[in-house]
Amino acid sequence: MLPPEFNFKNKNANFDLLVNLDITSLYNFSDCVYMVKIQEELNHIQDYYYIQKRRFGERFEMQVEVEEEEIYEYYIPKLTLQPLVENAVKHGLRPKGGAGTIEIDVVRTESTLEITVMDDGVGISPENLKELRVQLLGKEVEAETDSGQHVGIGLKNVMDLIRMKYGMDYGIVIDSYEGMGTIVKMRLPLLEEEENEDVESVTGR
């Protein structure tokens, strides 16, 4: 089935769209690669960003800052970054209804890799933020909190995967300010070589 945004009158736009959809599908559903370099994961996020702009006419920009060139060569579990960006788009910027920005910062310390995804969307109230943190750290993820605030299953899966593979010193944390935006930080060990251990897709697809 063709995507709903397919335009029979604009062949160039259709080709561009389908190529990017195909690239994203191949990245998402590959069963043979479980660890990827930071460069590959960021390339995928650029594809995701481009598709969101084309499909939904999103009026937002994305900025990526990587502290050092060497960081691009470190490995992370595949598809751990996309759920963070999806969360910013769906729960931060779209409800805002206007222009917005997502910033991705990647830095390293002596032994860790830290990836921060920030948006200037609607933010989360203190009460809802407390509920979200409980769900994120809990064993189960409900469809939504009592206040109606959703936690993406992909975000919870990222947390569980990181904790399971690398221990309680790693994972993700959420900070947010209502009416100002949300900050999600992901902490991983520095991995200079690809791990052989299989890792299930964190998006649940």
Quick structural summary:
This protein is of the alpha+beta class.
Task: Give an overview of the whole structure.
By secondary structure, the chain is of the alpha+beta class. The protein is about 35% helix and about 20% strand. The chain has 5 helices and 7 strands; from the N terminus they run H-E-H-E-E-H-E-E-H-H-E-E. The protein has helices at about 10-30, 40-55, 80-95, 125-135, 155-165, and strands at about 35, 60-65, 75, 100-110, 110-120, 170-175, 180-190. Strands 2-4-5-7-6 form a 5-stranded mixed β-sheet. Strands 1-3 form a two-stranded antiparallel ribbon. The chain starts with 10 loop residues before the first helix and ends in a 16-residue tail after the last strand. Mean pLDDT is about 80; it is low at about 1-15, about 140-150 and about 200-205.
Structural class: alpha+beta
| Spatial strand arrangement across the major sheet | 2-4-5-7-6
CA distance, first residue to last residue:
19 Å
| Major sheet attributes | 5 strands, mixed
Helical proportion? Answer: 25-40%
> How many DSSP E strands?
7
| pLDDT averaged residue by residue | 78
- Spell out the helices and strands N to C: HEHEEHEEHHEE
Please report the number of helical segments.
5
Shape: globular
Estimate what percentage of residues fall within beta strands: 15-25%
- The quaternary structure here is single chain
Unreliable runs: 1-16, 141-149, 198-205
Q: How many whole angstroms does the radius of gyration measure? A: 17 Å
